[in-house]
Amino acid sequence: MTARPLASLNPLDWSLLHGPVPYLLLVLGWCALIGLLVSFTTHWWTRRLPIAVGATVVLTLLIDWIVDDLWQPFAEDLPSDVVFWIAIALFGVCLAAVRIPVLRWRGRVLAVVAAALVVAMGANEVNRHYEQYPTLRAMLAPSTSALTEGKDSQTVSAPAGKTLSEVWHPPAGLPAKGTLSSVAIPGTKSGFKARDGYVYLPPAYKASPRPLLPVLVLMAGQPGQPSDWINSGGMVDVLDSFAAAHQGLAQVVVVVDPIGGSLDNTLCMNSNIAQSQTYLAEDVPNWIHANLQTATDRQAWSIGGLSFGGTCAIQLAVNAPKVYASFLDISGQDEPTLGTHQETVQQAFGGDEAKFDAVDPMHVMSRTKFPDTAGLFVVGAGDGEFGPQQKRMYAAATAAGMHTEFQTVPGGHDWGVFHQGLVIGVPWLAKQEGLIR
């Protein structure tokens, strides 16, 4: 996810996070804002500009209140720099709105263009905070192929005491890269209505005989969608790079939807909201067994995710330990939440604390040991909200007898951290799954 020279790339692949493009947007945006702000009429400074300033302040405070206090789509409040750039974008729109009525048509066109440049600057600075879209291409739908491979191939598995990489010999002509397919995984038992997910098949999956590869079930955050791991997380590149270094071997990765909608929150539990745990612990594994030819023993199965998905990963690891032997928790929380603990228990379990405690991972780990479970925790060094929560979960998992590891990477609660968490997590999980030594 590093920037590359513009001259070597299609404009869709120019970096929005580093290099010339974001700085060009800053220059154009600030120039446009100054152009909208400056006027040589007294009426502008005494009446129209104060209106624009007042409207900007009111709209910014209103958006901040709606997001943080009323809507609460995020586990943490909007960061101050994000609020600042939202305010700048709104200021550009408000300045244009109060100028347009007194301008001729050419001036109106210029005002609209100037406002658009200010909005583009503000939007990209918010994007740079979260590192959500490294390029324009990342905003597009992922490129996928049909899932056509059958389950009738001869297979290769590792004997006791050996890893799969030690007994696997890639045939000539093995593809250099894996494939990505969009798939629908129905909630057959849970009744959960999930959005389409994705299946990544590494190059070795195309071979015959086919190695029985481990499985990683991966989840994005909330708000979020399965494609976030492909577009913003660079998942395919991470797995292709790992496969290139290991004779075409990598996990079969199934990216699933645990929430049903970008702004929904199922808590990854079976509750009054949804039967999300049943979906992830039964429907998803059953679909994989029915449609893919992979390793089936527990040790070869992992679950992982970022933020909400990270919290969900450790929840499934302790509530469905017979399904998932290892997990990757990137920037997760210490408790699934709908805002406050009281709101969570009330909405999900009708106020019954005992029902919440029965599945809350911190409570489960306090009363149950998991000596056969492994977990990796990754968090941004500058993540003041989720960093302390990750440390508490790591301590609880270690006390519960798990094989655990805790790593910090540069950054906060953003896609730079999430991407790096996957880079670290793929080989770490591969060792737990018996894929590599």
Automatic annotation (TrEMBL):
Q: Is the Membrane keyword given for this protein? A: yes
Give yes or no: UniProt keyword Transcription regulation: no
Q: Which domain of life is it from?
A: Bacteria
| Ranges annotated as spanning the membrane | 20-42, 49-67, 82-102, 109-126
Give a single Pfam family match.
Answer: Esterase
Spell out the InterPro entries in the cross-references. AB_hydrolase_fold (IPR029058), Esterase-like (IPR000801), Mycobacterial_A85_antigen (IPR050583)
The protein's name is: S-formylglutathione hydrolase FrmB
Q: Which UniProt keywords apply?
A: Hydrolase, Membrane, Transmembrane, Transmembrane helix
Q: What start-end ranges are recorded for coiled-coil regions in this protein?
A: none
Do you know which PANTHER family this protein is assigned to? DIACYLGLYCEROL ACYLTRANSFERASE_MYCOLYLTRANSFERASE AG85A, ENTEROCHELIN ESTERASE-RELATED
**Gene Ontology MF terms:** hydrolase activity
